[in-house]
Write a structure and sequence with these properties.
Elements (H helix, E strand, L loop, with lengths): L6 E5 L4 H12 L3 E6 L2 H11 L4 E4 L5 H14 L2 E6 L23 H27 L10 E6 L12 H21 L4 E8 L5 H4 L4 H8 L12 H13 L7 E4 L7
Parallel strand pairs: 1-2, 1-4, 2-3, 4-5, 5-6, 6-7
The protein binds nicotinamide-adenine-dinucleotide.
Nicotinamide-adenine-dinucleotide binds next to helix 1 and helix 6.
Length: about 260
């Protein structure tokens, strides 16, 4: 997929994975819509990109803002790439194991929050982006667009204490092939990246980089360090450029497996 004279949208575009990806998409020729709630970070990145990319305040719980972000992208240029990589606030209701040490049950609201944040929101962005892409003139390759969702290795193998997150991220894995086959007649591809443990704001806002590396690196076989968001962005670029990648979940985890 050639992004010259195209637009792209990145949910969580001001975040760790999102910002690294937005920089790559801009270098590939796209005007990028940074769809995020973090106005200050997003505006600074828009300025840095300086190629007509824009920030659209987008709350992934508010469908109308998703629609607006997609419509803005499609007005800038044909929307040819969507990368769904937003984070989410902690649930208001308590989490942990389904039945905690104190005998308390994990709240249904906690489960619902994770599914809303990661699965429902991903479908919302995917469907609005696909609707815009379907209106594109196909390229000579017969392709109209590509959509990348972001799961997690926690959605592929169980980890105690992460039932709601695993369910939401696992749902994205289940969705990928179906989406790809469903949208094949339109020339729109669907892929999912399942990252391992990466040093993004999700960690660096709570501890120093050194503390994060010391805590998480021992569980990562090789290279023995946390992932760099740039490595996620490299894969996103390859997925966009390589039309034969479709309907697959790719682990990006340095051979990490949850015990
Ligand atoms: N970092 C990791 O190790 C890791 C591993 C596996 C999967 N992931 C997934 O990657 C995605 C992004 O994570 P990250 O590590 O880049 O996090 P991050 O905290 O660096 O970035 C997340 C971005 O999402 C934005 N955001 C938060 N709430 C939002 C909302 N309501 N609407 C729109 N945007 C919102 C934040 O402002 C932030 O810019 C998440 O789906 C996460 O589950 C991360």
């Amino acid at each position: 997929m050639d992004l010259t004279n195209a637009s792209a949208i990145v949910t969580g575009g001001a975040g760790g994975f999102g910002a690294a990806t937005a920089r790559r998409l801009a270098k590939m020729g796209a005007k990028v819509v940074l769809a995020d709630v973090a106005e200050e970070r997003a505006r600074a990145l828009v300025e840095e990109l300086g190629n007509g990319s824009v920030f659209v305040r987008t709350d992934i719980y508010d469908e109308s803002t998703i629609a607006e972000a997609v419509a803005t992208a499609a007005k800038l240029a044909p929307l040819r790439a969507a990368v769904v990589v937003h984070g989410a606030p902690q649930p208001k209701e308590p989490g942990g194991r389904v039945i905690g040490r104190d005998g308390a049950r994990l709240a249904v609201g906690n489960f619902r929050h994770m599914v809303e944040s990661y699965l429902v929101a991903a479908y919302a962005v995917t469907s609005y982006a696909a609707e815009a892409m379907a209106r594109n003139e196909p390229l000579a390759s017969n392709q109209r667009g590509v959509i990348i969702n972001t799961a997690s290795i926690a959605g592929l193998e169980g980890q105690p204490g992460l039932v709601p997150y695993s369910a939401a991220k696992g749902g994205l894995g289940a969705l990928t092939l179906t989406l790809a086959r469903d949208m094949a007649p339109l020339g729109i591809r669907a892929m999912t990246i399942a990252p391992g443990t990466f040093l993004t704001l999700a960690y660096s806002e709570h501890m120093t980089n050194e503390q994060a590396q010391a805590k998480f690196s021992p569980g990562i076989p090789n290279p023995k360090r946390m992932g760099d968001p740039e490595e996620y962005a490299m894969l996103a670029q390859q997925i966009i450029e390589n039309d034969f990648l479709n309907g697959e979940v790719i682990r990006l985890d340095a051979a990490q497996r949850f015990q």
